[in-house]
Structure formats: structure tokens, C-alpha cells
Write a structure and sequence with these properties.
- With about 325 residues, the chain is α/β, with parallel strands linked by helices.
- The protein folds into two domains: about 200 residues, NAD(P)-binding Rossmann-like Domain (Rossmann fold), CATH 3.40.50.720; about 100 residues, Alpha-Beta Complex (UDP-galactose 4-epimerase, domain 1), CATH 3.90.25.
- It contains ten helices and 14 strands.
- The strands form four sheets. The protein has a seven-stranded parallel sheet with strand order 3-2-1-4-5-6-11, sandwiched between helices.
- Strand 1, helix 1 and strand 2 form a beta-alpha-beta unit.
- The chain starts with a strand and ends in a 9-residue tail after the last helix.
- It binds uridine-5'-diphosphate-4-deoxy-4-fluoro-alpha-D-galactose.
- Uridine-5'-diphosphate-4-deoxy-4-fluoro-alpha-D-galactose binds next to helix 6 and strand 8.
């Protein structure tokens, strides 16, 4: 299949782009490189440098390459930032996603996969979170993804667009020793903890220890980026049987303190930690039930173990202490 991957130079998008190439698909990556890295894009993919606010560019890419499917990763993705700049998220994420959907319909692309999020569930009514749990976004970021999910729902109803909305819990780990997570600035827990292990930062600040959890710190479901990628490939092939929505996690929760302790074991390094203020928008506990995708698509995570997840990330960080830009 010919697949357009927006955000295909980013952490998750580039991992999926590579798997698409490896499984015999033709890949076109569209990325503005605001977060992504040219070096992360698979060599076999066609790369277009550009932005989703440019509707003419989107039209040109679809006309030139005639993709049969679109995977939409390009997005602002930070819960905390969205609490500071809500309109940036509600405006950019929604407008850019809608630009892409409009173009998909106009160019007759009828398969669409959306990167959605666990943040759709805010403080969820039950744990683990299955697809029937009420949606009540925890932040403007989650809200923006919900609006995009609804857009796809209505395009399915009205234009026969088949879509999958994949709600990621906490993506983590590295796809390989030379392909990993590289954000600037970095805000995610595991990479920051590993930067402390490498001596690039003095300490990790734990955002609050007064949550209603066993050790008071937030609990998250960390899922390996390769497992996420596998889910995309399966979802793409399943679209011919209709649209679908899946929650994607391991089904195991780990607290911030457990992540830090595991990283100490994996790296053998001291990782100084101190408790700071909670971060607005952070729910106490997010753990997925992924029974639906397991049953319907036969998807099974290969990296259920937090040590394995952190181990792959550690390998990447050690070999590329400055990420993609400055090779070690
Ligand atoms: N945390 C700290 N200190 C830090 C960074 C993070 O204590 O320096 C804590 C956070 O408070 C949170 C946990 O570690 O409880 C994980 O935080 P991340 O920033 O790594 O990830 P988030 O849970 O905020 O968000 C991530 C993605 C979102 C996605 C969400 C789904 O960034 O796009 O997972 O759960 F929506």
C-alpha cells in the first residue's frame, strides 16, 4: 500500500514509517521537522518537508503521490503545555487535522489512522480503561484529539472514510539502538530519568507525591513504541472490515517512583530524585485495557516488561547522548 505518514520524522511516526517500509509498503513522510528529525525518516521513504497548515501543500502531496491510506501522527502532544497554552492545542491540532481530513475526502483517500490518546479519559471512572469508559478529556490536548476522532466518525458516516483511532497510553522505549526518542525540550519521564543517569541533568523532579496511588506518585501504562507500531500495521489491514477505536497499553501500571527505581537497576547509576509540585492536567492513574485490540486483531505486546522498555531506551540514549543531531 502507498501510505502518507504525517509526523513521520517524529518518535512514534518514524518507528511506524520504518515498519511500513519493512513490510513492503511505499511510504511518503510529511513533516515540518519542528519536533522530528530528518535522520529518523527511513531512507526508502519519500520525504516532504512541510506543514499541515498549508492546504495547498497537502493537496499537492495527495495529488502527486496518490496515497491509499493516511497515518496522522503530526501533532502537538504535551499534556502540561496544553494546560498553559490551551488555544495552541485546540487550534493547531484540530485545524491541521481537519485540513488533512478535508484533503483525504477530496482526493478519495478512504483509509485514515489517527494517533489519539489516553488523555481522552481525564480522571477515568474505572481502571483499567476500556473503550466504553466515558470520555472526559483531561486537558486541551486530549480535547483536541477527541474532536479529531469525532471528525473521523462523521466522515465515516457521510463519506465512507474508514478510520482507526488508536489511543496511546505512554509510549516509551527505543525501536533500536539507533532509533529512539529525541525531543527538544524533553519533558517525558523516561528520557529525562535516563539523562540524569547519563549525568546530563542533576536530578529528576517528581511531579507530586500526594496522589491517590500506592506510593503517592502518578501511575502510567508504558507501552513500547515497537508494540504501538505493530498495532498500526494491524489496524491498517483491518480497515476494510470497518472503522475501529482501540485503547493501546500493556495493562500494567507503574508509578513515577517505580520507573525511577527500575531505571536505577537497568543503568546501574545513581539517579537523584526530588519531589516537586504536581503538574496541572496530570491524572493520578492511567492504565489501559487493550482486550479489544487483542481479541479483534490478535495484537499482543512483545515488550510488556518495564525493564525491557527502559533497557531499549537506555541503549539508544547511551549510544546517542545528544540524539539524532550530534552522533556519538
Ligand atoms: N513526570 C515527572 N517528572 C518529570 C516528567 C514527568 O514526575 O520530569 C511524571 C508526570 O507527572 C506523569 C508521568 O511522569 O505522571 C509521565 O509523564 P510524561 O510527561 O512522560 O507523559 P504524560 O503521561 O504526561 O503524557 C504522555 C504523552 C501524551 C499522552 C499521554 C497518555 O506525552 O501525549 O502520555 O497517557 F497523551
Amino acid at each position: 500500500m502507498r501510505v502518507l505518514v504525517t509526523g513521520g520524522a517524529g518518535y512514534i511516526g518514524s518507528t511506524v514509517a520504518r515498519q511500513l517500509v519493512e513490510t513492503g509498503n511505499e511510504v511518503i513522510v510529511l513533516d515540518n521537522l519542528s519536533q522530528g528529525h530528518r535522520a529518523a525518516v527511513p531512507e526508502e521513504a519519500t520525504f516532504v518537508h512541510g506543514d499541515l497548515q498549508n492546504r495547498d501543500l497537502i493537496d499537492r502531496v495527495l495529488a502527486d503521490h496518490e496515497p491509499e491510506a493516511i497515518m496522522h501522527f503530526a501533532s502537538r502532544t504535551l499534556v502540561g503545555e496544553s494546560m498553559e497554552e490551551p488555544l495552541l492545542y485546540l487550534d493547531d491540532n484540530v485545524r491541521f487535522g481537519m485540513n488533512l481530513m478535508r484533503a483525504a475526502v477530496e482526493h478519495g483517500v478512504n483509509r485514515f489512522i489517527l494517533s489519539s490518546t489516553a488523555n481522552l479519559f481525564g480522571e477515568p471512572e474505572r481502571i483499567p480503561i476500556d473503550e466504553e469508559v466515558a470520555i472526559d478529556p483531561g486537558s486541551p490536548y486530549g480535547e483536541s484529539k477527541f474532536v479529531l476522532e469525532r471528525g473521523l466518525h462523521w466522515l465515516d458516516e457521510t463519506h465512507d472514510l474508514r478510520y482507526a483511532a488508536l489511543r496511546y497510553f505512554n509510549a516509551a522505549g527505543a525501536a533500536g539502538p539507533d532509533q529512539g526518542e529525541d525531543h527538544d525540550p524533553e519533558t517525558h519521564l523516561i528520557p529525562i530519568v535516563l539523562e540524569v543517569a547519563l549525568g546530563q541533568r542533576e536530578k529528576i523532579v517528581i511531579f507530586g507525591d500526594d496522589y491517590d496511588t500506592p506510593d503517592g506518585t502518578c501511575v502510567r501504562d508504558y507501552i513500547h513504541v515497537l508494540d504501538l507500531a505493530q498495532a498500526h500495521i494491524r489496524a491498517l489491514h483491518a480497515l476494510e472490515d470497518g472503522s475501529r477505536v482501540y485503547n493501546l497499553g500493556n495493562g500494567e501500571g507503574y508509578s513515577v517512583r517505580e520507573v525511577i527505581d527500575t531505571a536505577r537497576r537497568v543503568t546501574g547509576r545513581d539517579i537523584p530524585a526530588e519531589v516537586g509540585d504536581p503538574r496541572p492536567g496530570d491524572p493520578a492513574v492511567l492504565i489501559a485495557s487493550s482486550d479489544k485490540i487483542r481479541e479483534e486483531l490478535g495484537w499482543t505486546p512483545q515488550y510488556g516488561d518495564l525493564e525491557d522498555i527502559i533497557g531499549t531506551a537506555w541503549e539508544w540514549h547511551r549510544r546517542h547522548p545528544h540524539g539524532y543531531d550530534t552522533e556519538s
